[in-house]
Write a structure and sequence with these properties.
The chain is of the alpha/beta class and about 240 residues long. It has 6 helices and 11 strands.
């Protein structure tokens, strides 16, 4: 299975366009350079023979392997996020119709997913997603034929919008997931978590909740109308009831 390097702390920031384009550019460039270095290291002789277990780390911003310009951009985004819902440009958040047109419609039973994932898919039956309409699903993370290190499932949830649930097994050798300590602004079952809320000028909203537990890192994303506080409560309830 091909090595991957994931900066989970950036998922919420990069999933929507913040008004400060300069900050986003600095972070995006750093991410690109980091991905290129990871790919280069993966191609070095003996790299694929390194079977060390993957890791999930909470890293203080001061210790992040990034230039000062990137750390400053993160500080700006973290401060904006802590102040509440962040206003993003019109068009940064897609409509539900646009999302539905773009999302995969493939669905697979748990029996097939168990064969393709390094660990069984998370049980969502104790959550509101357990009875929600399933739109589709797709593999994520490291891919090896039909097998993958992660899975994203998409749902349509009444009064919330489109909810994407991603689970990523970070124990896969070669995987590195890092989150920024200062960006952790909430908790899921007592564990550090990050929540980001975005709204635009068209009445659309997006909430992203990310955390880790056991062998997996999780991300829940809700996109719909601009009631981001309501979306945040729903996502927190889903996260607290997920079992593995």
């Amino acid at each position: 299975m091909k090595k991957i390097s994931i900066a989970l702390a950036l998922l919420a920031s990069l999933s929507s366009v913040h008004a400060n384009a300069e900050s986003g550019d600095a972070i995006g460039q750093w991410l690109h350079e980091r991905a290129m270095r990871a790919a280069l290291n993966d191609d070095l002789p003996g790299a694929r023979q390194n079977g060390e277990e993957g890791t999930y780390r909470i890293v203080p911003l001061a210790e992040l392997d990034a230039p000062d310009t990137v750390k400053s951009a993160f500080r700006t985004q973290i401060a904006r996020s802590r102040a509440g819902a962040v206003r993003v440009p019109v068009g940064a958040i897609p409509s539900q119709a646009e999302l539905l047109a773009a999302l995969p419609k493939v669905q697979r039973p748990d029996s097939v997913l168990r064969q393709r994932l390094p660990s069984p898919p998370s049980n969502l039956q104790g959550t509101v997603l357990g009875v929600a309409e399933v739109i589709g699903m797709e593999p994520s993370g490291a891919l090896d034929g039909v097998k993958s290190s992660g899975l994203t499932r998409f749902y349509r949830l009444t009064d919330v919008g489109i909810v994407a649930f991603n689970e990523e097994n970070f124990r896969i050798p070669g995987t590195t997931i890092e989150v920024i300590a200062e960006a952790q602004n909430t908790a899921v079952n007592g564990l550090p978590a990050q929540i980001d809320m975005n709204v635009d000028g068209q009445g659309r909203g997006r909430v992203v909740l990310s955390w880790a537990a056991g062998d997996k890192a999780y991300t829940l994303t809700a996109t719909g109308d601009s009631d981001v506080e309501g979306k945040a409560r729903v996502l927190q309830g889903i996260a607290a009831a997920i079992t593995d």
